[in-house]
Amino acid sequence: MKNTHAKKQTKRQVSGGKIIRLCVLFMIGIFSTAIALAQEKIEAGDPLNNTEIPNFYKCKLSDIEKEMDLVSTGQVKVIAISPSGLPVYAVYYGEKDNLHSQANYNSAVAARNPVFFAKKDSSTKPVVFFLGPVHGQEAEGIAGLVNLIHIAETGKDYRGNDWTSLKNKMEQCRVIIVPCGNPDGRKRCPYDSFVGLPTKIMTKYGQGTRKDGTSWGWPKAKSLHPMEGNVGILGAYFNDEGINMMHDDFFSPMAMETKAILEVARTEVPDITVSLHSHENVPRILPAAYVPWFMKERIDQLIRDLNKRYIEKGLPHVPAEWFGEPSVEDKSFPPRTSFNLISALHHVSGTMAFTFECSHGTVNEAKPVPIVTHADILDIQLNLYDEMLEYLLANRLLWE
Ligand SMILES: [Zn+2]
Q: Most C-beta atoms within 10 A of its C-beta, which of 5, 244, 252, 373?
């Protein structure tokens, strides 16, 4: 009886989602001229976009659109509309459990038990939140998550490789996948992949330039926020209103995308959450800042487990000497560690949140960086997802 009711409800939600999607697509039609103008052009002298991107590497917004049409066992929803009118999609797998919430997270913790926020006992499914790139040039996460959706639907990735074990783990959980957190940034980025391209090109179009043509670079790209005024190329880091969701104002969010991402965490209460990013270096999970010590230790364990897996799979990995204790933030002035989107995701929901940095596969004359192919990038992504699920299923924290 319970099951039949649940099935009916799921069906209704699916059709509701489709109606919302149709409305959104209509709105996109209206805004299409503006969107067409929104892409930054590749400047004269810069390398052209990669033309040798394999078909399995689904890293474009159009790939997400096509994948949304193929979802049948999951539910598709539009959780936000970007400033340029683009949808931010979320795909949900597994029925949502009733978590009997009676207080917000921090009040529940103050009452000495997160169960007052969400009753996540052994009768509820573990919840996993995969947040695709909020930095538009870091499309590696889109390629990974579109393949993950395909695995959830078929058990195989777009190369035809079998991932039944990953699919089985997903079926034991509620899984939320946001394939791209910043469609504006992705749309503006004129490169679909940086494999074989110089890091400085990725930086130029990713973090943007000033009016005089100089790159903002890291960390100066965070020194003007919203990024408006002295802007030549608006970097793919930002949405069309210049907001970098990693460093939004979390007590009064500026971007609808940020609000929607935090709302997913607040309402779904994920046990584990990854925010997918990329850099020129080896793939790795970054420790989270301003989260409790026990959570830092859990993330540290997962960092080590994932690195071990990358070694076993022959993928780029972190050298042993990089490992140490989780760190304490800013013991002395000046502060350099920010309370960022990862910290905020934890503090609205208690989730084990962290950043993952994939390798872009760029080249850099100044220092050695890992060489990766598109197939390596997909393996880096899918092995991360599998390791997260494996860790969670073996190490879940129950709130009861
Ligand atoms: Zn990033």
A: 244
- 152 alpha carbon to ligand 1 midpoint, in Å? 25
Contact 136, 236 (CB under 8 A): yes
Rounded to whole angstroms, the Cα distance separating 369 from 280 reads: 6
Are 195 and 79 within 8 A, CB to CB?
no
Q: How many residues does the chain have?
A: 400
Structural domain span for residue 80 = 57-326+334-394
Distance 183 CA to ligand 1 centre (A): 14
The low-confidence residues of the chain, meaning pLDDT below 50, are: 1-17, 19, 29-37
d(C-alpha 269, C-alpha 397), whole Å: 12
**What distance in angstroms lies between residue 377's CA and the mean position of ligand 1's atoms?**
16
Distance 332 CA to ligand 1 centre (A): 26
What six digits make up the tokens of 341?
Answer: 């989107």
Please, are residues 148 and 132 in contact by the beta-carbon 8 Å criterion?
no
Q: How many angstroms is it from 398 CA to the middle of ligand 1?
A: 31
Burial class (CB in 10 A: 0-12, 13-18, 19+), 152: buried
Tokens (6 digits) for 43: 């400047």
**Ligand 1 mean position, distance from CA 254 (Å):** 18
Backbone φ and ψ for 131, nearest 5 degrees, come out as -100, 115
Rounding to the nearest 10 degrees, give the CA dihedral for residues 105, 109, 111, 112.
150
pLDDT tens digits for 53-72?
999 999 999 999 999 999 99
φ, ψ (nearest 5 deg) of residue 183 = -65, -30
Helix segments in the chain, DSSP class H? 2-38, 61-70, 105-110, 140-154, 164-171, 183-188, 199-207, 256-268, 293-312, 341-349, 374-394
Distance 308 CA to ligand 1 centre (A): 23
Helix axes 164-171, 140-154, angle to 10 degrees: 80
pLDDT score recorded for residue 34 = 43
Dist CA 386 CA 166 (whole Å): 6
Inside any domain, residue 5? no
Residue 206 lies in a domain: yes
In a domain, 27, yes or no: no
Q: How many domains does the chain have?
A: 1
The enclosing domain of 242 has a CATH number of 3.40.630.10
